[in-house]
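Quick one: structure for this chain?
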Amino acid sequence: MKARTLQPEAVEALTQPIRERVGLTIRAAREQTGLTQAEFAEKMGRRQAYISDLETGKTEPTISTLIFIAYVLGKPADYFIPNEYMNLAEFKAIKTDELSVGETELIQKLRQVEGQFSQYGLIRFIIDTILEYGAKMQAEFEWWETNTAYRDDDK
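Got it. Here's what it folds into:
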C-alpha cells in the first residue's frame, strides 16, 4: 500500500490540538440541546467528570464514543470532526477502466449520498475505521505466524 501525501493545510491542521477543538464542539452541541453536563453524562452512562474531560480536551473520545455522542446530541458523527481533518490526503486519479464491477457499484452508491454531507462523511469515517482494523488484524496474524510454537517440523 502506498503512503499518502499530506496536503500543506493538513499538516498545519494536525499540529493544532484536535482534542480541544472536538471538546469545544461537543460542549456547544450539548448546550444547544439544553442539557447540563450531569444530564448528558446520565444519557451517556458516564460520570460527569468524564464529560468535563471530553469538553476541555483532557481526554479524547473513541470512535464508538463519538458516534454515541452524536446519537445522544442528535448530530451526525462527522459534525464533531473539524473540516480540515476530513480530507487530509491527496489521492491518485484512477481510470474508470481500471475499476472492478464491485468498485463501480460502490462509487454509484456513494454518489447517491454525496449530497447528504453527514452521511457521506460518516461512510468515509467507517471505511477508514475498517481499513485500520484490517491492518491491525493483518499485523497480529503476521506476528502469530512468526511467534507460535506450531511449526511444520513439529508434525
